[in-house]
Amino acid sequence: MDWLSPEEWQAVALSLRVAFWATLVSLPLGIMTAYALARWRFPGRQLLNGLVHLPLILPPVATGYLLLLAFGVRGPLGGLFAEVGIVFAFRWTGAALAAAVMAFPLMVRAIRLSIEAADPKLEQAGATLGAASPWVFATVTLPLVLPGIVAGAILAFAKAMGEFGATITFVSNIPGQTQTLPTAIYAFLQTPGGEASALRLVGIAVIVSMAALLLSELVARRVARRVAGA
Predict the structure, then answer these.
(1) What is the torsional sign of CA 96, 97, 101, 106?
(2) What is the pLDDT of residues 69-110, one digit of tens each?
(3) Interatomic CA distance for residues 208 and 18, integer angstroms
(4) Does residue 85 come out as left (phi exceeding 0), alpha (psi in the -120 to 50 range) or beta?
(5) Which of 21, 51, 56, 223 sits in a 20 to 30 Å window from 2, CA-based?
(6) For the whole model, what pTM was predicted?
(7) Distance between CA 17 and CA 156 in Å, rounded?
(8) Distance from CA of residue 164 to its chain's centroid?
(9) Sequence-separated (6 or more) residues with CB below 8 Å from residue 113
(10) Residue 214 neighbours by CB under 8 Å, 6+ apart
């Protein structure tokens, strides 16, 4: 990557780091949320569904501001995390949190559709054989919906790589600390003579996004074939 400057490389590396942790940490919650929305009927289900999809319809800047209010050092949640040494505001961890929140609806939707397409009678059969609910979920449900989980995780990773509005509002645009790929592109476009750097980063963003989409389709199809042949 000699054709990238150190500042450009820092932005790419930080974006990969942010997207990786945003996807990894949110995946268990995404699976549980998708399962609850697909299989359970409970009071407040529609409210939960609305909250999950809220980042898709809210302006990203508004989402970032809400994160700042909640997870800032003086925020109710940010103060609790700060007491154990975890700070989100104006740190790369905050960029990962913002990316996870913005990518979460896409992850949940992909997994939920996969769960809804799975035959619930197979889960019921496991339960009638005396298996506990967690064991049925682990041995029957997860293998059935694995293509959706893989697709959701990869799409969330791609979305996290491209997150801009919530990130710049929550953690600002600090080179080497919170400057991700999209915020670096924005910064270069505001700098005289920075068009070439911005164009290089745009090219990387396009390549990563397209690769993620193609990989999502490829992996999901292969997993689906293996599950069908099992």
Answers:
(1) positive
(2) 999 888 899 989 988 888 998 899 999 999 999 999 999 999
(3) 14
(4) left
(5) 21
(6) 0.87
(7) 13
(8) 13
(9) 148
(10) none
